[in-house]
């Protein structure tokens, strides 16, 4: 089987909510010497994106979407331990979470996995996180970056709350803020004063490195 075929099969397994097959074929892809990040980005994420499209078009509903995410996580569980961390010092300390009012954490978890693989130390606050908790944790651990995620338009305003609280605490100059999620755009990020916008998980990693001015020698 060619690389492209196994990656498409993995994507199809996610869309078809086949948890065991997703794990089995993810393992098979590893045995074919396909890199873990390729399996994630060109298999698992492609499948989850397709599931999201079906959800938006009312062909899938919440139960189906959750089963698809279970399948994706089964694949992530197989491949994540094989991601080689960059052989450098920790690039930065990141507090990450889904803002208050939202419990969709698939995108946040993907960004977390790729940031960890890139050499960042991650403090994951989970989902439905109050704005104050992001700021308090960033202050406690001396974070370099806060990553905020949401999949709902009704909770986008929580991102601005975090930025305003950072200003109140006089931390804004020291702690960068990166935002992302389904309804988020570059223009929205600029409008609330965020430092960066991650269009997808891989893009979020690139932006995180850029906003933290990580030298190319370490960011490669």
UniProtKB/TrEMBL annotation:
Segments forming domain B12-binding: 91-220
GO molecular function, one term: cobalt ion binding
Keywords: Cobalt, Metal-binding
InterPro entries (alphabetical): Cbl-bd_cap, Cobalamin-bd, Cobalamin-bd_sf, Corrinoid_p, Met_Synthase/Corrinoid, Meth_synthase_dom
Protein family membership: Belongs to the methylamine corrinoid protein family.
GO cellular component, one term: cytosol
Pfam families in alphabetical order: B12-binding, B12-binding_2
Species assigned in the record: Biomaibacter acetigenes
Listed name of the protein: Cobalamin-binding protein
Record-annotated B12-binding N-terminal domain positions: 1-91
């Amino acid at each position: 089987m060619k690389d492209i075929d196994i990656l498409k099969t993995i994507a199809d397994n996610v869309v078809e909510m086949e948890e065991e097959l997703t794990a089995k074929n993810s393992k098979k892809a590893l045995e074919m010497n396909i890199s873990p990040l390729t399996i994630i980005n060109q298999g698992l994420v492609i499948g989850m994106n397709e599931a999201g499209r079906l959800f938006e078009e009312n062909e899938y509903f919440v139960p189906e979407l959750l089963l698809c995410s279970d399948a994706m996580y089964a694949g992530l569980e197989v491949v994540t331990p094989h991601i080689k961390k960059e052989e450098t010092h920790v690039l930065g300390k990141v507090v990450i979470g889904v803002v208050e009012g939202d419990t969709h954490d698939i995108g946040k978890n993907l960004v977390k996995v790729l940031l960890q693989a890139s050499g960042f130390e991650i403090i994951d606050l989970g989902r439905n996180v109050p704005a104050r908790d992001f700021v308090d944790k960033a202050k406690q651990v001396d974070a370099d970056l806060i990553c905020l995620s949401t999949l709902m338009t009704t909770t986008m305003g929580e991102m601005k709350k975090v930025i305003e609280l950072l200003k109140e605490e006089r931390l804004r100059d020291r702690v960068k803020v990166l935002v992302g999620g389904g309804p988020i755009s570059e223009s929205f990020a600029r409008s609330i004063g965020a430092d960066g916008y991650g269009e997808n998980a891989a893009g979020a990693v690139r932006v995180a490195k850029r906003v933290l001015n990580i030298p190319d020698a370490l960011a490669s």
